[in-house]
Amino acid sequence: RSVEGDFEGIGRKGKACVQLARILQYLECPQYLRKSFFPKHEDLQFAGLLNPLDSPHHMRVDEDLEYREGVVLDRPTKPGRGSFVNCGMRKEVQIDRQLNPGLRVTVRLEEPQNPEAKVRKGTVVSSHHPRAVSGLYWGYSVRLASCLSAVFSECPFKEGYDLSIGTSERGSSVDQVTLPSFRHALVVFGGLEGLEAGVDVDPNLEVTDPSVLFDFYLNTCPSQGSRTIRTEEALLISLSALRPHIEEAVKTPRDS
């Protein structure tokens, strides 16, 4: 979970993308793990002024939950025993396998635990496990794309996005839309010059109209009074406007 090094396809004017990605990753990381994964960097100079996410996986030292995020420690272990992990608790956690030091892991704590034991026991699980099995929001991941087309072509899901939404003041009103059922949705926001600017500079696209790239091209703030809406404002407005439509789509059977 690092954005260190050069990112191919991003030039001097694109360093803001790398900085934003690093800040987003910093905010997602639990506070007790940040020293392990984020050394001092100029991109994070003012990150401490940002509001904390306080997500379920950002846990206090005495907070009790089945899952914890941790970092594998560089400590010797007995043969046949698993590595030790710092999970931000008063006791370290010994997991069920040997892993390389410095790796970030999601750990499911075993219950019941012996209160007299020097360490706690746990099992390493996928980072998606808390959400998929227990319905817990467990943070997000950050992906950098060199151009608009790469957002689609480098999709992390094998089957791709089965619902794509572009946002623009030139789109159809979000109030009238009915979204289909989906597994993986993508919502794309443009910059100050809109998604048209992203299409114009993309070497892999031959189209000029960005609406043809998406299943839905929506105006999420119809009858806006201001001349422009900042991207950070559009995020909050659009997600609020899309929420009831997404919730309704999730309830819809996929075969209907």
UniProtKB/TrEMBL annotation:
Q: What is its main location?
A: cytoplasm
GO BP terms: namely: maintenance of centrosome location; methylation; miRNA processing
Q: Where do the coiled-coil regions begin and end?
A: none
The entry's localization annotation reads: Cytoplasm
Q: Which GO terms describe its molecular function?
A: methyltransferase activity; miRNA binding
Q: Does the keyword NAD apply?
A: no
Catalyses which reaction? uridine in 28S rRNA + S-adenosyl-L-methionine = N(3)-methyluridine in 28S rRNA + S-adenosyl-L-homocysteine + H(+)
The leader peptide range reads none
| InterPro entries, alphabetized | Alpha/beta_knot_MTases (IPR029028), NA-bd_OB-fold (IPR012340), Put_MeTrfase-C9orf114-like (IPR003750), tRNA_m1G_MTases_N (IPR029026)
This entry carries the following GO cellular component terms, namely: cytoplasm; kinetochore; mitotic spindle; spindle pole centrosome
Upper lineage: Eukaryota, Metazoa, Chordata, Craniata, Vertebrata
Q: Which Pfam families match?
A: Methyltrn_RNA_3 (PF02598)
Identify the keywords attached in UniProt to this record, alphabetized.
Cytoplasm, Methyltransferase, Transferase
The UniProt function text for this chain reads: S-adenosyl-L-methionine-dependent methyltransferase that specifically methylates the N3 position of a uridine in 28S rRNA. Required for association of the centrosomes with the poles of the bipolar mitotic spindle during metaphase. Also involved in chromosome alignment. May promote centrosome maturation probably by recruiting A-kinase anchor protein AKAP9 to centrosomes in early mitosis. Binds specifically to miRNA MIR145 hairpin, regulates MIR145 expression at a postranscriptional level.
Family indicated by similarity: Belongs to the class IV-like SAM-binding methyltransferase superfamily.
Cite the record's note on assembly.
Interacts with INCA1.
Q: What is this protein called?
A: 28S rRNA (uridine-N(3))-methyltransferase
